[in-house]
Hints:
This protein is α+β, with helices and mostly antiparallel strands. The chain has one domain (3-111): Alpha-Beta Complex (Aspartate Aminotransferase, domain 1). It contains five helices and six strands, in the order H-E-E-E-H-E-H-E-E-H-H. It has helices at residues 3-11, 41-45, 57-66, 93-110, 113-119; strands spanning 16-19, 26-31, 34-40, 50-54, 70-72, 81-85. A six-stranded antiparallel β-sheet has the order 1-2-3-4-6-5. Strand 1 (16-19) and strand 2 (26-31) form a beta hairpin. It is globular, with a radius of gyration of 14 Å.
Amino acid sequence: MNIQYIRDYCLNKPHTIETFPFDQNTLVFKVADKMFALVPLEKWEQGLAAISLKAKPEYSIELRAENRSVEPAFHMNKKHWNTIHLYKAELQPELILKLIDHSYTMVVQTMSKKKQKELGF
């Protein structure tokens, strides 16, 4: 799985944009101005591909216990955010896409019902 595939996958989700709010090396995907994925581009260039994604707290605990390539996200709320180290090639691409979907869905669900309706969710 390469960065372009992840980028395309994220951008194909409704109301998703890509931004660089922190620096020129951290690609952030947002749905309606709320982050659901962070990609440290510098790490990809170094061969240390990773993505940080949001998850339900109980799911985060489960993922971390079952996969050595999943750990609490640096500089993020560790209760909700995980960094998935893709370079370790432990997780199947289907699971990575499922985790992106889960993160996106979590963010959408935190929006007000009014906002969800405005956006067609």
